Amino acid sequence: MGFRCGIVGLPNVGKSTLFNALTETAAAQAANYPFCTIEPNVGNVAVPDPRLQQLAAIAHSAKVIETQLGFVDIAGLVRGASKGEGLGNQFLGNIREVDAVVHVLRCFEDGDVTHVEGKVDPIADAETVETELMLADLESLEKRVPNLTKKAAQGDKEAKAAASVLGQALELLRDGRPARLTAPKDEDERRALAQAQLLTAKPVLYVCNVEEASAAEGNAHSAKVFAKAAAEGAQAVIVSAAIEAEIATMPAEERGEFLAELGLEETGLGRVIRAGYALLDLITFFTVGPKEARAWTVSKGAKAPQAAGAIHSDFERGFIRAETIAFADYVALKGEAGAREAGKLRQEGKDCAVQDGDVMLFRFNV
């Protein structure tokens, strides 16, 4: 499982409470004062997918193994973090290592919980954190781009691609805009941008942490965040960290009724995961047999050998072909044998793109 989301935000917005609830652990110390999270806490959560249970029932699988998404609870950023304020440099380094940023914003009023800026304003909070990330990226690129430009002038092909795309990112940052708006023109530039690990190039999911009464529909604060996300092409979800913390302590069989009483169809975890999948452009494929039914995660557009590599590098290295059945066909025809007999089992080679829900068996030789 190679996909990790970093949970960021100002101190006391509910990051650690949310992390604890999402991962159903008490790994992150939640306290009402800044910097209570010093080291980033990492937790993997199972991705709920009802299709997996259907497949397991048909194949009489002994085990069911969900795919997982990783969350990293990163300590609260403060104004001046890009210059090392608080524990800025350490925190910024932690953010570089994740695939997406889950930005928790306080959208609730509570006089008992101190706000580091003295008032509840999620848009201002978002801009404070984004500014610190942009300043860190700006400092990094102002040192790197001139050197790349010199190398490019000397005929270095890789430096030419990097200088072009990072120069574009630098201009965006100087204009007060994040590097995620950069538009690489080819694969070389896309690779150079990814390798730069720019903080503001990462996709962003805004999580509006609301009070319990607003968990279903949100409130005036969350409405502003959704408008901001729409304008940026980002994702936003409404979550009540307090409710999630309560759900995490409940037996699984009681959770549905509790959610229904609150007017909720699913947990905040479900909403965050779905939004995270959309943000990272991820899809799920399955392997199914009598021993286990298992879900795997790959990027949309991944080819069959890449999917095989998600299971084991040897599978990708020695890939011969994939035997693939669409999820709907597997269910309708009651499993592999029925799909094979009906001609719905496809023999696919190296150039075949994996579709969400595919049931796959890989043939390989190493």
Question: What's the helix and strand layout?
Answer:
Blueprint lengths: L3 E5 L6 H9 L17 E6 L3 H10 L3 E3 L2 E6 L14 H9 L3 E7 L15 H32 L3 H18 L12 H9 L8 E6 L10 H13 L2 E5 L1 H8 L3 H10 L6 H13 L1 E7 L3 E8 L4 H8 L1 H5 L1 E7 L1 H6 L3 H6 L4 E3 L10 E6 L2
Parallel strand pairs: 1-4, 1-5, 3-9, 5-6, 6-7
Antiparallel strand pairs: 2-4, 8-9, 10-11, 10-12
- Which percent band covers the strand fraction? 15-25%
Number of helices: 14
What does the oligomeric state look like here? single chain
Order of helices and strands: EHEHEEHEHHHEHEHHHEEHHEHHEE
Which structural class fits the helix and strand makeup? alpha/beta
Q: Which strands sit side by side, in order, in the main sheet?
A: 2-4-1-5-6-7
The mean pLDDT is: 86
Question: Gist?
Answer:
43% of the residues lie in helices and 19% in strands. The chain is α/β, with parallel strands linked by helices and 366 residues long. The radius of gyration is 23 Å and the shape is flat.
Give a verbal description of the structure:
With 366 residues, the protein is of the alpha/beta class. 43% of the residues lie in helices and 19% in strands. It contains 14 helices and twelve strands. The chain has a six-stranded mixed β-sheet, with helices on both faces. Helix 1 (15-23) packs parallel to helix 8 (241-248), helix 4 (122-153) runs antiparallel to helix 5 (157-174) and helix 5 crosses helix 6. The chain is flat and about 65 Å long. The two termini are 23 Å apart. The model is unreliable at 26-38 and 84-88 (pLDDT under 50).
